Amino acid sequence: MLISRAPRFTSNDITDAKHYLTRREWMLGAAALTLLPGESAAATPQGEPLKAARNDAQSLREPATKFESATTYNNFYEFGVNKPDPARLAHTLKPRPWTVRVDGLVHKPKTYDIDDLLRLSPLEERVYALRCVEGWSMIIPWIGFPLASLLKRAEPTGQAKYAEFTTLLDPSQFPGQRSSLFGFSLDWPYTEGLRLDEALHPLTLLTVGMYGQVLPNQNGAPVRVVVPWKYGFKSAKSIVRIRLTSEQPATAWNKAAPQEYGFYSNVNPAVDHPRWSQATERRIGEFRRRPTLPFNGYADQVAPLYASLDLKKYY
Length: 315
Ligand code: MTE
What we know:
- The protein has one domain: Oxidoreductase, molybdopterin-binding domain (Sulfite Oxidase, Chain A, domain 2, Alpha-Beta Complex), CATH 3.90.420.10.
- Helix content is 17%, strand content 21%.
- The protein contains 9 helices and 13 strands.
- The strands form 2 sheets. Strands 1, 4, 5, 8, 9, 10, 12 and 13 form an 8-stranded mixed β-sheet that branches. Strands 3-2-11-6-7 form a 5-stranded mixed β-sheet.
- α1 (13-20) packs antiparallel against α2 (23-33).
- The structure holds ligand MTE.
- Ligand MTE binds next to loops.
């Protein structure tokens, strides 16, 4: 994001790599996998199991990224700017009690207790690709239900055109929200936004778990959004409010660097970030970069949403 660092493998990538790399490649890889001084691979305790039926129609057939990598290589600036920070520090986040307010341009505003929210709709497991704007990607089996199920209950008014997502603001739980503790600050709380048709799209997942268990704190407990055809920063973590608006909402990264992080931020190999190419990506756990797919591979399902939009202008 703003602070660009060379992507690193974590030690957890080593185990799988042995199975498919040649001996020479593996030795080269092992050198790259060495942790930097002072950097420890944070342990992630297994969370509470969470049952969900796999939605095969909406799941990739690719093998999932290792759980250890998905939970120790994170972006969650409320806990710091380095990839291992969230796993190290996220124990201060308290995912209970927790409420999510759905309001704004709706006929039925409501505040949901998180445990009621979990029971609102049948939980599904969906294996999605996550592509970060920084040029790395993962395959993650998320658990949740379509955000549309929640939004439709609120009965959006005819004026509602956008959805705004707000992360919890609480510096006692999020050390990164104490003014520039890590030498860098977003305008807290983290907010993100979607057009209403994007928010209602069947791929957009209100997410409460991953890998068969409740969402680990560093991945956005107790509830986040996952929008698989957009760069990862559009998927706000630890949300407390969803507000429907008539105007396009201001969003955290767009406010910080509008020329780098657009409101749409659809994964697009043809539109480079001003400071790096978006044509390829590094799948965490793999050795070589692979081509990035338009809309992160979901073009069949979402390209029609943008039929009349110049995607270079609306990046
Ligand atoms: N949400 C909040 N509140 N704060 C953040 O810093 N980072 C975003 C997104 N959601 C972020 C956030 C970015 S840049 C990415 S790539 C994804 O979360 C990473 O999700 P993951 O750590 O579960 O892989």
